[in-house]
Amino acid sequence: MSDMKPTLPISIVALLVVAFLQVPVLVVVLTSFSETSYLTIPPQGWTLKWFAEVLSDPVYIRAIRNSLILAVSSTLLSLALGVAAAYALFRKAIPGSEAITALLMAPLIVPSVVIGVAMLQYVTLVGLRGSFLVLIVAHVVITVPYILRSALASLSGLDVSVEEAARVLGADGFTAFRLVTLPLIKPGLVAGALFAFVTSMENVPVTIFLASARQTTLPILIFSSVEMGVNPGVAAISTLLIVATVIVLLLAERWTGFHKFV
Amino acid sequence: MSNLSLRNIVKRYGKTEVVRNASFQIAEGEFVSLLGPSGCGKTTILRMVAGLLEPTEGQIMIGERDVTRLPPNKRNIGLVFQSYALFPHMTVFENVAFGLRRKGESGKPLEERVNAALEMVRLGGYGARFPRQLSGGQQQRVSMARAIAPRPSILLFDEPLSNLDAKLRDEMQIELKRLQQELRITTLFVTHDQAEALSLSDRVGVMHGGVIQQLDRPEEIYHRPANAFVASFIGKPNRLQGRIEAGTVALGAGLALRPERLDLPEGSEAEVFLRQEAIRVLRTPEPGALAGTVALRAFSGPQVQLVVRLAHGAEIVVEVPSAEDTASLAPGEPVHLAIRPRDIIVLPQGAAS
């Protein structure tokens, strides 16, 4: 962006900060290869047995599956709802659109625990407690802000007349949106969807109130395993998560160049 | 191709009337401009014709079809935007093909028509490029090709040249005129640039405050403005006060102008509009010429502007070609200003504008 090169002291400070922030990640990755049954640095010996153990444990497998189903479905739902909401809020002069935007963005500010407790009371009241659908809805609530924010930002960067041009050229409203507006805001949406996906994947405070034993997600499982005592199995599953995240980010970056929108 | 007619079109936002009772007709193949300062309602009218805005009252007809409540995609209109509004994620070819594809064209005929449209704006061979790889002028030409390719019955231009620099604007003006003459498409052109409107149009509508003040041939607009707004908006007029006396406009201190036509009653107050470029500067007196002294002189290349103070104190700005002998007149020198009777525009004092 800027042509200014940072001075040497600033570069050093920046590197130190980045290093400090990345050390925990490094620790987790290293310990997951340790032969010992407790966490140690540096790792004692090299083994992949913890990965094998975790990936053959039906409890972990089910948690991973639950998390993926939950994250994928809530991200897709959030995309559909968030994009529609952003479009309506941005393009049409809806009365109280500011208030609606603030309301939809609120889960970013309201503590997740509060949302979790509130959702639990609510679903108990309406008798839907324990339903997987409730879990999906809850995750939509907490992931929609990310989609909405990136969609609104992308839309505001768009020349309104581009979609009008499509309309005048014979495209109905939906076709104009599909062929012109959607492709143009796609990079922003991918960025938002990634945030939404990761948010859903790692969420504990909301999920823990709503998930029944069979619906345990990966972060909940990691959370409760750590309560029992940290073992390299937890480190192994965490390493897998880190690797998966990096791969997804790289693919998304190549696909859309979305870094401009984060 | 068809004619376009607006009947008693009103557009209101709350209590503000942006367009007040606009009625006019554009004949088949005719080129009409709406000219006016920003906020005069000209773009609002264009957007209502395009279907991007709905009129509060009135009726819009394209040929025999009432399109007032039709969405833009059902109107068969071509629109060229000020911002070009090209689809940045599509090639030039796909941009131009967009409207044709919506009409179900495909394959060889589609390709031929897209290429023909690009050929018309002299961008043959540019089909594979993306808009961002083109200059501003080229982008605007693509947007014209895109608008004409589906053979619209009406072509609309929303200040299409105002984003271009002055030199390119002149070139594009000629290009546009050529294109319109080849195609003979009914055209509504919106601009705030009077030279553009006057040189391109069959008729010009001058707008102010949501009202079309005058809709007429460019020559009429220029030489016979209907009211004080049109007279002061078009060209670079000098505005003088006077009184009708014995078939002349008396300015005071014995100065008088004798216009070709005078419809005002004897003794009434009048306003006189004299265009800078319609005044001849003389060193020696001539019957009917106004006597004065040069007060200021400004050289601007092809022209010299002289501010002349008349005997009764009012000042008049005059444009003299630099090549003329009188261009060297210096402040303090006496001059005489001769104006042809047909160039003297007289309008009633205080008329609504």
From TrEMBL, chain A:
It is a multi-pass membrane protein. It is found in: Cell inner membrane; Cell membrane. Keywords: Cell inner membrane, Cell membrane, Membrane, Transmembrane, Transmembrane helix, Transport. Residues 64-252 form the ABC transmembrane type-1 domain. GO terms for biological process: transmembrane transport. The chain crosses the membrane at residues 12-33, 68-90, 102-124, 130-148, 188-213, 233-252. One of its GO terms (cellular component) is plasma membrane. It holds the Pfam family BPD_transp_1. SUPFAM superfamilies: MetI-like. PANTHER family: INNER MEMBRANE ABC TRANSPORTER PERMEASE PROTEIN YDCV. Belongs to the binding-protein-dependent transport system permease family. This is Spermidine/putrescine transport system permease protein. It comes from Paracoccus versutus (Thiobacillus versutus).
From TrEMBL, chain B:
GO terms for molecular function: ABC-type transporter activity; ATP binding; ATP hydrolysis activity. GO terms for cellular component: ATP-binding cassette (ABC) transporter complex, substrate-binding subunit-containing. It holds the Pfam family ABC_tran. Residues 4-234 form the ABC transporter domain. The keyword Cell cycle does not apply. PROSITE patterns: ABC_TRANSPORTER_1, ABC_TRANSPORTER_2. The keyword Translocase applies. Keywords: ATP-binding, Cell membrane, Membrane, Nucleotide-binding, Translocase, Transport. It comes from the Bacteria. SUPFAM superfamilies: MOP-like, P-loop containing nucleoside triphosphate hydrolases. InterPro entries: AAA+_ATPase, ABC_transporter-like_ATP-bd, ABC_transporter-like_CS, ABC_transpr_MalK/UgpC-like, Mo/tungstate-bd_C_term_dom, P-loop_NTPase, Transp-assoc_OB_typ2. Coiled coil: none annotated. Belongs to the ABC transporter superfamily. PANTHER family: MALTODEXTRIN IMPORT ATP-BINDING PROTEIN MSMX (PTHR43875), TREHALOSE IMPORT ATP-BINDING PROTEIN SUGC (PTHR43875:SF15). This is Spermidine/putrescine transport system ATP-binding protein. It comes from Paracoccus versutus (Thiobacillus versutus).
